[in-house]
Amino acid sequence: MTVSSKITITRPDDWHLHVRDGKFLPSVLGDTAQRFARAIIMPNLADPVTNTQRAADYRDRIIEALPNEYKLTFDPLMTLYLTNRTNASEIKKAMDSGFIHAVKWYPAGATTNSDKGVSDIVGCYDVLEAMADEGMPLLIHGEVTDPNVDVFDREKIFIDQFLSGIIKNFPTLKVVFEHITTEDAVSLVESASKNVAATITAHHMMLNRNALFQGGIRPHHYCLPVLKREKHRAALIKAATSGSKKFFLGTDSAPHTKSTKENACGCAGIYTSHGGIEFYAEIFDKAGALDKLEGFASFNGPDFYNLPRNHDKITLQRKKVKITEEFTFGDEVCVPFRAGGELNWSII
Ligand code: NCD
Ligand code: ZN
């Protein structure tokens, strides 16, 4: 085996993950805990995680549902769901808990379970001020919800209408622009202060929007923000492999049942945790930048969140592994990314 067909890196973390709740948890947690030491757990449950007590209860349910071998090794990093009624006093409580690491802003109506999200961010300015004071990061689903705005432009318009202003008004607030999909988002993050960072998914670096219509409509390639043009995909790869500390791994793995994806009104979200690090290895390898994978996957996230880097290592090899067509998800099934195909890299 040549040197470049194997790589050992510090164990990575996933800085953007959906694991759902109840009967669905045991179906997906193993994939993440096998690869990652920690994951930022998104709070967009049907009944969202809006306060510290709910986050504590949800964290307990996650740990309970983890396979035994990962109960002590995997740390779910919890987040709160920002609403129009979030109290600024909740921020200190969340910070003091030690297990809540961020607050997520979903513009109301932007994506799955976001209807209880924020309809007027200015009304939340006291909460953002408390977050800046406490050093609590704000995670942003950066898309406008105006139905008159073209769905492919929603991220770009969000930058102009909201994000630029937030960054200017709260220069000390830590902001993660989540799952960025455009060259515009890359530019914004690059030109902002060190308090502004971004996560990038593997699927947005592997597919452009043609993948939604490849010989027919492809519900398993539908996620939000929706896939974009090729030039944007290229900009994301360039950013992720640049060595910049502002970009880090966030899978946005978002499982839905097969029946809610293959549907007249299919849900947004792609399940990628079965290749949570392997897909990124493939992308970095193709870009000739395997040497930048460790920074992106294992260092930049914890450094931004002021958490220690992991100590143990994982080794990946360029070896194909078959991907299942579907797996049991609660009492239904879920179709994973690249179902029936192959992982080109695997963990030893
Ligand atoms: C996510 C989900 O299903 O919870 N869906 C998605 O397409 N990414 C929500 C989100 O992150 O937008
Ligand atoms: Zn998400």
Description:
This protein is an alpha/beta fold and 348 residues long. It is 32% helix and 16% strand. It is built from eleven helices and 15 strands. It is globular. The site of zinc ion has 5 residues, from loops.
What secondary-structure arrangement, pairings included, does this model have?
Blueprint: E1 6-10, E2 14-17, H1 25-35, E3 38-41, H2 52-65, E4 75-81, H3 89-97, E5 100-105, H4 125-134, E6 138-140, H5 154-169, E7 175-177, H6 183-191, E8 196-200, H7 203-206, H8 230-240, E9 247-249, H9 258-261, H10 278-286, H11 293-305, E10 313-317, E11 321-322, E12 327-329, E13 332-334, E14 342-343, E15 346-347
Parallel strand pairs: 2-3, 3-4, 4-5, 5-6, 6-7, 7-8, 8-9
Antiparallel strand pairs: 1-10, 10-15, 11-14, 12-13
The structure holds N-carbamoyl-L-aspartate and zinc ion.
Quick rundown:
This protein is of the alpha/beta class and 348 residues long. It has eleven helices and 15 strands.
List keywords for this structure.
binds zinc ion; 16% strand; alpha/beta; binds N-carbamoyl-L-aspartate
Number of strands: 15
Shape: globular
What count of helical segments does DSSP give? 11
Low-confidence stretches: none
The distinct ligands, each listed once, are: N-carbamoyl-L-aspartate, zinc ion
Q: Estimate the strand proportion.
A: 15-25%
Tell me the structural class: alpha/beta
Binned, the helix content reads: 25-40%
* Backbone CA Rg: 19 Å
* Succession of helices and strands: EEHEHEHEHEHEHEHHEHHHEEEEEE
Q: Within the largest sheet, what's the order of strands?
A: 2-3-4-5-6-7-8-9
